[in-house]
Write a structure and sequence with these properties.
7-stranded mixed β-sheet, about 375 residues, binds guanosine-5'-triphosphate, alpha/beta, single chain, Spore Coat Polysaccharide Biosynthesis Protein SpsA, Chain A, binds magnesium ion
Length: about 375
């Protein structure tokens, strides 16, 4: 029998906590191979949440754990609960869940089933077939939720993951242990994104199951939207390989253009020589910036030999970009005329060069470890 701990962070959830805990513990009947306990981290609720939990603890001996902490944000509350579970309970898996009944406890067996089948982390996804957000949410809330997820998906260029912000997840304890150092820096809601980003970079096996998010009926929302949006962008700019890769590309373009301008316009040198010099300088700068910044979590290792091989591959991929641009632009100008050549160039870079090089870099140069 394997142990699963359902973690419920609470702040003023007296309206739902009892019914929710009873419902969660009742799931034990449905999963003979699992032993489900509940761990509540109550961050100084001003209502009766903690008192209700303490009363329930007497009724369900050893099945309910209660932590009482200061209010320091959702991420912090989860971090405290993870540390407690690791040190005192040693479960096989933890399940994160909101305590306002937005997450249906009847889905717990589905999460555990995916874990039993080999997933390291299972995401309750609202934006896949069979999942949903509440139909009674106001339009701005719907838009905000959809846009936030889309921005993160595109920002990380992880199109096969459809849900980043929902807090209904099952995570194996080894992955939590591994991630503790990273996620402890994120005390707010953005911790959900940090955790999933870490799991992906670790090469964890990720599964999604449809989740129908239910609007809360009791109590108040604790989310502080503008702060959350700011944290999402800050996280993306700090950790997205894709965004950094695009920035590196722009720097490369600047270097190429700067040297060409100086050599051709100011110093009147041979065009072929300056072009060779400017493109190769940009390629070298791109290679090192990508290695030590954009893909620093997959840095090339193994000495000078490996560097040289990777650098040659990088030159090869970059030559491909130059060839695609030259031929592509020639074709478009041939069909539509020269007037809007810069627009064609931008389109080719955005829709062909960027995906082409990003995919090839990830496949051949900075491979997943
Ligand atoms: N311990 C603890 N729990 C928190 C904190 N902030 C939020 N929570 C809990 O985290 C869960 C999710 O918070 P919600 O306010 O429901 O956020 P949401 O689900 O995004 O938004 P709504 O459902 O619209 O309220 C709930 O169980 C909250 O009680 C906190 O600082 N500490
Ligand atoms: Mg909620």
């Amino acid at each position: 029998m394997k142990k699963a701990i359902i973690i419920l962070p609470t702040f003023n959830e007296a309206g739902t906590i009892e019914k929710l805990i009873v419902n969660i513990l009742a799931q034990n009947k449905k999963v003979p191979n699992w032993d489900i306990d509940v761990l509540i981290n109550d961050s100084s609720s001003t209502d009766d949440t903690a008192k209700i939990v303490k009363t329930l603890q007497k009724k369900y001996s050893n099945k309910i754990y209660l932590l009482e902490t200061k209010k320091e944000g959702l991420g912090k509350a989860y971090h405290q609960a993870f540390v407690y579970a690791i040190e005192n309970i040693q479960p096989f898996v933890i399940i994160q869940m909101d305590a306002d009944f937005s997450h249906n406890p009847n889905d717990i067996p589905l999460f555990l089933d995916k874990i039993a089948k080999g997933a390291d982390i299972v995401i309750g996804a609202r934006y896949i077939k069979g999942g949903s957000i509440p139909s009674n949410w106001r339009v701005h809330r719907k838009i905000l939720s959809i846009l936030a997820n889309l921005t993160i998906r595109l920002g990380f260029m992880k199109l096969n993951i459809h849900e980043w912000t929902n807090g209904y997840r099952a995570i194996k304890i080894w992955l939590i242990k591994d991630a503790l150092e990273h996620i402890k820096n994120y005390s707010g809601y953005v911790f959900q994104i940090a955790m999933l980003d870490y799991a992906i970079k670790k090469g964890a096996k990720i599964a999604e199951i449809p989740n129908n998010f239910i609007d809360r009926k009791y109590g108040k929302s604790k989310i502080f939207v503008s702060q959350y949006i700011f944290q999402i962008f800050l996280y993306l700019f700090t950790y997205s390989s894709f965004i950094k890769f695009v920035i590196v590309g722009l720097i490369g373009f600047g270097i190429d253009f700067g040297i060409s301008y100086l050599g051709i316009q100011k110093l009147h040198q041979a065009v072929w020589l300056i072009t060779l010099l400017s493109t190769e300088t940009a390629i070298i700068s791109n290679f090192f910036l990508n290695n030590f910044w954009s893909f620093s979590h997959k840095k090339i290792e193994g000495g000078v030999g490996n560097y040289l091989v990777s650098f040659l591959k990088f030159n090869f991929v970059s030559s491909g970009s130059i060839a695609i641009q030259t031929v592509g632009l020639q074709i478009l100008v041939g069909i539509f005329g020269r007037k809007l050549w810069y627009l064609y160039k931008i389109l080719i870079i955005a829709f062909v060069i960027i995906p082409y090089s990003y995919i090839l870099y990830n496949k051949f140069i900075w491979k997943q470890k």
